[in-house]
Amino acid sequence: MKLLHLGLIVADLQKAAAFYEGVLGLKRAERPALGFEGIFYALDGERQIHLMRLDNPYDGCKLPAHGGRDRHVALGVADIDAIRLRLDAAGISYSMSKSGRAALFCRDPDGNAIELCQMAGD
After folding, report:
1. Model pTM score
2. 3-class secondary structure for the chain?
3. In the chain, at which end, N or C, are there fewer CB atoms within 10 A of the end residue's CB?
4. For position 121, what pLDDT does the model report?
């Protein structure tokens, strides 16, 4: 078994794209017509992130302050310090991993928790 994609619910595709493309640097992938608005992002090979513009069933739920204590997506990055600079420049708050490793947690504009981990050897 292997992960093929993960789906995240977003309220505003433009705001989400500014985060996923502008801050994280992801590239859009081809997306078939599915009957709702969305954006697909290519990760590596077959894996993708699917953003779905749908009503959020979790709207109004209290989220943990640290994204590592919430459901989250973990993405490997080459340089965690470069990501920190990009998040700082965009005014996006984050918390460093409580394990002490080179990783941080932030949230996209819709509150989805994202873990960004420096890959070993990078």
Report:
1. 0.89
2. CCCCEEEEEECCHHHHHHHHHHHCCCEEECCCCCCCCEEEEECCCCCEEEEEECCCCCCCCCCCCCHHHCCEEEEEECCHHHHHHHHHHHCCCEEECCCCCCEEEEECCCCCEEEEEECCCC
3. N
4. 65
